[in-house]
Specification:
Elements (H helix, E strand, L loop, with lengths): L11 H5 L2 E9 L6 E9 H8 L6 E6 L5 E2 L1 E4 L9 E8 L4 E10 L10 E4 L1 E4 L3 E4 L2 E3 L15 E6 L2 E6 L6 E6 L24 E3 L9 E8 L2 E4 L5 E9 L3 E13 L2 E12 L4 E9 L5 E8 L9 E4 L4 E9 L6 E9 L3 E6 L5 H4 L11 E8 L5 E9 L9 H16 L3 E4 L1
Antiparallel strand pairs: 1-7, 1-29, 2-6, 3-4, 3-7, 5-6, 8-12, 9-10, 11-18, 12-13, 13-14, 14-15, 16-17, 16-22, 18-19, 19-20, 20-21, 21-28, 22-27, 23-24, 24-25, 25-28, 26-27
Length: 422
């Protein structure tokens, strides 16, 4: 597939008008090359480099040759002042890069290629959908009639697309992509073709049914799975979206687990160039250490069973790999999680056909392979959900290639790019 060139040349005359800052040093400590390595630099760190940050100015990151590195600034606490500068960068093994930060007026911000996106469209298929930054799904809403574009909160990067049904099902689904452009703003509209059919951009490639889908959540309690669905409150809140990363929150209240009412928050982060999204989950109202379950649907597995493996000395994984996509080709899915957070690996009970095809309201979890993580009251548990589709890249037809992807990403997560001031 053709990919964008994400490097933007900067004219010397343009840079000469900018106020330069001390040099940032970024170091890849691993013995492997890295592509689109995520880097986060706090506002406090930038201020140490540049002194007081100018009002109404935007930081632009350049390398020693004056080439712009795609980046964005994010106001994560939504107080009107940006908190972090985020960028992605390629590295050779053990490479050290020296970068400059220059401030420019907003009308001179370079035009970066947008490689991540979050979308919640509110409206109807006939009347159209308007993208919003915040919404609350009505209690007991089953998704009918369709009030949200593609029925879901959707997020994507240049490689894959994901969605979470914004109703009482609250299971995650996958969109396989065949081109790097952002497509979530357009699918599920009156003007678009059915996303259940293969088109030039790709398609919905996963059958979810009564499962947790692609990384859906539940609480494992006394040998039962309690789906994070049919809650009293289900709220979407966009945190940030930009060319290199997007972040949003799903907030819940009144999650009934064996008669106890819990609250929860899932913060999802997607980076450019990655076959995964990060999920940080917090649960409130727990009296003791509990087990958060993260699931992978198994309904279309044909020949191969789910498998698990050690990714490195810090991470383990569960995964599936089979001719299991809705396009009848190879689809690989996996959950990467810190080894010290693991409690158990298991499978949801087999449901009767009547239950599987029954009401969406508070539906029991079935057809799901899952891992549970330790979770304590109001303390975050983190995992990474991976998905790769054969039609996007033929190498994903080989299980070993997908395992190696998860292992390499585990190594990168274990050894993030080191940021220092020089």
């Amino acid at each position: 597939m053709k990919r964008y060139s994400f490097v933007i040349a900067v004219l010397a005359s343009f840079l000469s008008a900018c106020t330069s800052s001390p040099v940032l040093q970024l170091k890849n400590n691993t013995a492997k090359a890295r592509k689109d390595a995520p880097v986060v630099i706090s506002r406090v760190e930038i201020q140490k480099l540049t002194g007081e940050i100018p009002n109404e100015k935007f930081p632009v990151v350049t390398d020693e040759k004056g080439t712009v590195i795609p980046s964005q600034i994010d106001d994560l606490d939504r107080d009107g002042k940006w908190d972090e500068l985020a960028l992605v960068c390629d590295f050779e093994a053990k490479e050290v890069k020296k970068l400059n930060v220059n401030f420019v007026s907003y009308d001179k911000i370079p035009e970066y290629t947008v490689r991540t996106n979050v979308r919640l469209g509110v409206g109807s298929i006939e009347g159209g959908f308007e993208g919003v930054d915040h919404a609350v799904s009505p209690k007991g809403f089953t998704g009918v009639p369709i009030s949200y574009q593609a029925e879901s909160v959707s997020w994507e990067n240049d490689l894959m697309g994901f969605r979470d049904y914004f109703d009482c099902r609250n299971a995650k689904d996958l969109f396989g992509k065949l081109q790097p452009e952002m497509i979530m703003d357009n699918i599920g509209t009156k003007e678009s073709t059915s996303y259940h059919e293969l088109s030039s951009w790709g398609m919905d490639i996963l059958h979810v049914g009564p499962s947790l889908g692609a990384g859906g959540l539940a609480l494992f309690h006394q040998d039962s799975l309690y789906r994070l669905g049919s809650t009293d409150k289900f709220e979407f809140q966009l945190v940030t979206k930009g060319p290199v990363r997007s972040v949003f929150e799903l907030n819940y209240g009144g999650w009934n687990v064996d008669g106890k009412s819990l609250s929860a928050q899932e913060k999802i982060t997607v980076w450019a160039g990655k076959y995964w999204f990060q999920s940080d989950v917090t649960v409130g109202g727990l009296d003791e250490e509990s087990e958060l379950a993260v699931g992978i649907v198994t309904s279309y597995l044909k020949e191969k069973k789910p498998f698990s493996f050690t990714a490195n000395n810090q991470f383990e994984a569960i995964a599936t790999h089979d001719i299991q996509s809705m396009n009848n080709d190879c689809l690989a899915m996996g959950v990467l999680f810190p080894s010290d957070s693991k409690v158990r690996i298991g499978d949801a009970p087999v449901l009767s056909e009547e239950v599987s095809n029954g009401s969406r309201w508070n539906q029991p979890v079935g057809l799901t392979h899952f891992v549970t993580q330790k979770i304590n009251n109001n303390k975050s548990a983190t995992h990474y959900f991976f998905a790769a589709w054969e039609l996007e890249n033929k190498k994903w037809a080989e299980q070993e290639n997908f395992k190696n992807l998860m292992k390499s990403q585990a190594d990168e997560l274990s050894s993030p790019v080191v940021v220092s001031i020089k």
